[in-house]
Amino acid sequence: MKSTEYPQAPAGLLFAGDTGMPGKQVMNSQWTQFAPRMGMIWSPGTDGKMSVRAAYGMFYDTPHLFFNTRWANNPPWGAQVSVANTAINGLTDPWTGYPGGNPWPALETGWATQPFPAFGVYVNAPLDTKNTVLHQWNISVQRQFGDWLFGGSYLGNHTSHLWIGVELNPAVYMAGATTGNTNQRRTLYLKNQAVGQYYGTIGQLVDTGRANYAGMLLTAQRRLKDGWSVMGNWTLSKCMADPATTELTGPTTVDPNNPGADYAYCDSDRRHVFNLSMIATSPKVQGAFGAIISYWQIAPIVRWQSGNRATVTAGPDVALTGVGGQRAVQVSGADPYGDGTAGFYLNPASFTQPAAGTLSTLLPNTIVNPSRFTNDLAISRTFKMGAARALQIRWEVFNVVNWVNLNAPTTALNNANFGKILSAQDPRIMQLAVKFAF
C-alpha cells in the first residue's frame, strides 16, 4: 500500500489523509470504556473502635503529552542525513559522492516531494491499540486500643494492556553478520530489498503487557496526646511487570519474537519498606529559664527499605539483532553477589557473555541493589511575640548517624567497573533556619 499524501514514501507507510487513517489521530477513538468503582465500610460492635474497609476500582490510563514526541522525528519530518568526508569534498558541494546528491531541494517545492532516507528510523502504533487498564483493590482492618490505632491492609492491583515497545524490524543473525551490516540483515530488507532499504529500526507499540502488585501494610499510630505522637508502618510487597514504555522511542523488550519473555520483577520493586516518625514537645517549665527551654519540639524520622532491582546487561549487540539491552548469562549455580562492599558488590566470575547470535535466558531485574537507611531529625521552637508575631528557630539534620547508603552497582558486563559501586547518597547535612512571622 502506497501513501497518496506523501508519494515518495516507501510502501507500507501511511499518513493522516490516506485511506484507512483516522483523520489526524494516531489511533482510533475508544468511547465505550466502562470504569466501575465501589467501596464499603463496616464497623462491627457498638463501641465504634473497629472498622473493616474494602474497595475496588477500574481505571483507564492515557499517555502523557510527551509520549508521542518521537513521531515528529519519523521521516520525512525529522530525518537526519550524515555525510562522511566533508573535509575532502569541501563545503562548496558536500554532497559529492552522496547517492542522489543533495536530498533537500524538495523543501522548496513542498513536503509531498520530500525524499525518504535509506534505513530511516521509525516508531509506530496500531490503530486499535487498547488503553492500559488498571484493576485496583484493597481490604483493611483497623482497631483502636486506648490511645493507639492499629491497622492491617492488603493492597493489590493488576494492569492489563500495558504499553510496551517491540522491535518490528530486527536484524537476522547469519554467516558474516557484524554490527556493521545490521541494516542489510533486517527482516524487511531481506524480504524485499527495494522497499526494505528505506526501513531501519521500527519501534512498535504493543498493548499486550501486564503488571501485578500485591502488598501487606501494617500500621501503628498514637495521635498527639500529652505532648507526643508516634506513627510507624511496614510494607511487604512484590511487583512484577513487563518493561513498559513511558515514551515511544524504541523497543523495551529484548526478544522481538517473544516480548512476554521479559516479564519479571519491576525495577522499582522493594520487598520491605519500614517507616517510623515521632513528634515530642518539651513540657512547660517554670522559673527563669522556663521561657527558653519550654515547648521545644523534636521530630525524628527513620526509614529503611530493601534495595530496588537492576539488570545485568551484556553491553554489546551479541545477538546481532540490532536491539539493545541484551542480558548477560549467569553461570549455573553461581552466586551473583560478591562480599557486599562497594568494590565487590557483584561477582564478575558469575556472569559471561551469550554466544554470538543468541539471547540470554536471564530475566531482567534479577539483581537486588543495596538497601537504604535514612534518619532525619528536626528540632524547632516557636517564640510568641504578641498576638500577631512569632519567631521560629529550626535546626534540621539529614542522615543523623552519617550512614553510608550505596547506590546501584555497575551492571554492564563489558564495563571495566562491572560489579563495583562508584557512588553513594548524601552524607550528614545540617541546616539552621530562622523565620519571623508577622
Could you name the key traits of this structure?
438 residues; 13-stranded mixed sheet; mainly beta; two-stranded antiparallel ribbon; elongated; 36% strand
DSSP strand (E) fraction?
A: 35-45%
Helical residue percent? under 10%
Rg for CA atoms = 30 Å
End-to-end Cα distance, whole Å, is: 73 Å
Topology as a string of helices (H) and strands (E) = EEHHEEEHHEEEEHEEEEEEEE
Q: Tell me which oligomeric state these chains represent.
A: single chain
Estimate the global geometry from the Cα principal axes. elongated
Number of helices: 5
Short description:
With 438 residues, this protein is mostly beta strands. The protein has a domain at 267-438.
Could you characterize the architecture of this molecule?
The structure is a single chain. With about 450 residues, the protein is mainly beta. The chain has a domain at about 265-438. It contains five helices and 17 strands. It has helices at about 85-90, 105-110, 185-190, 195, 290-295; strands at about 35-40, 50-60, 120-125, 135-145, 150-165, 200-225, 230-240, 265, 270-280, 295-305, 310, 330, 350, 365-370, 370-385, 390-400, 430-435. Strands 1, 2, 3, 4, 5, 6, 7, 8, 9, 10, 15, 16 and 17 form a 13-stranded mixed sheet that branches. A hairpin with a 2-residue loop joins strand 6 (about 200-225) and strand 7 (about 230-240). The longest helix is centred in the middle third of the chain and has 5 residues, at about 185-190. The model has no long low-confidence stretch (mean pLDDT about 90).
